[in-house]
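Example record used in the benchmark description.
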Amino acid sequence: QVQLVESGGGLVQPGGSLRLSCAASGSISVIYAMGWYRQTPGKQRDMVAEINSAGVTNYVDSVKGRFTISRDNAKNTVYLQMNSLKPEDTAVYFCGAVVRSSDSRTSRYWGQGTQVTVSS
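Model output (structure tokens):
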């Protein structure tokens, strides 16, 4: 089994910054893509940023130039640095990862989510 644990959410004023972290643990053989996704009430979960095992990144247009995704493969951890936050960034942020576990099965796993609220 694989677990993803997020941290770093909270309340911030518009224009402020937050850094999210997500650590993967458990029966991990290989972590392929890792990413951050967000969801607001009544809407689907949308991709914010993704990074593959080679470090290639992909962002939704609305966060380009403001958010930066990175990963530390030695720590099985992915980060999301969020700058110049806007009220429309308010959402529950989920960490996701595609993992090949020790039993050679490849699956997508999700964290429990962390609330980010941007408000004055």
